C-alpha cells in the first residue's frame, strides 16, 4: 500500500476542556498516513495525480483553527473525515499529540484509523 505522509504538522489553536485553556493558544502536533496510489503521479511525473501534502496541511490547519475544540479526539476525527471526504483518501491514520498537557510527559495524544484499504 502506498501512502502520503505528513509528520508533526504544528497547529496552534484553542484546545482543551478547562476554562483557562479556552483563553490561550496551544500547540498540537499532527501525524497523518494517507493511503494513496502514488504510481500514476510517479509514472507521469504529473502533480495532477498526486495527493498534495501541502494542500492537505493547509486545509487541516484551517479546519482545526476555525473554532475552539475541547478534545483532541475531536481533532483527530475531523481530520480523518476531511481527508476522506474532500481528498478521496480511502484510509487514513491520524495521530494528534498535545505537548505539555501533562508536565511529566513529553506529550500525550490519540491515534485513530478510519476507512478501508
Ligand atoms: N483523552 C483526553 N483526555 C484529556 C483531554 C483530551 O482532549 N482527551 N484533554 C484534557 C485537558 O484539556 C488537558 O489537556 C489539560 O492539560 C485532559 N484530558
UniProtKB/TrEMBL annotation:
Task: Identify the metabolic or biological route this protein is part of.
Answer: Cofactor biosynthesis; tetrahydrofolate biosynthesis; 2-amino-4-hydroxy-6-hydroxymethyl-7,8-dihydropteridine diphosphate from 7,8-dihydroneopterin triphosphate: step 3/4
For whether the record's keyword set contains Lyase, the answer is: yes
Q: Which Gene3D superfamilies match?
A: 3.30.1130.10
- Write down any Gene Ontology CC term: cytoplasm
Q: Name one GO biological process term.
A: folic acid biosynthetic process
Q: Which residues form a coiled coil?
A: none
Q: What is the catalytic activity of this protein?
A: 7,8-dihydroneopterin = 7,8-dihydromonapterin; 7,8-dihydroneopterin = 6-hydroxymethyl-7,8-dihydropterin + glycolaldehyde
User: Which stretches make up the Dihydroneopterin aldolase/epimerase domain?
Assistant: 4-114
Q: Which UniProt keywords apply?
A: Folate biosynthesis, Isomerase, Lyase
GO MF, one annotated term: isomerase activity
What InterPro entries does the database record attribute to this sequence? Dihydroneopterin_aldolase, FolB_dom, GTP-CH-I_C/QueF
Among its keywords, does the record have DNA damage? no
NCBIfam families for the chain? folB, folB_dom
Give the protein's function.
Catalyzes the conversion of 7,8-dihydroneopterin to 6-hydroxymethyl-7,8-dihydropterin.
Q: What is this protein called?
A: 7,8-dihydroneopterin aldolase
Organism (species) = Shewanella colwelliana (Alteromonas colwelliana)
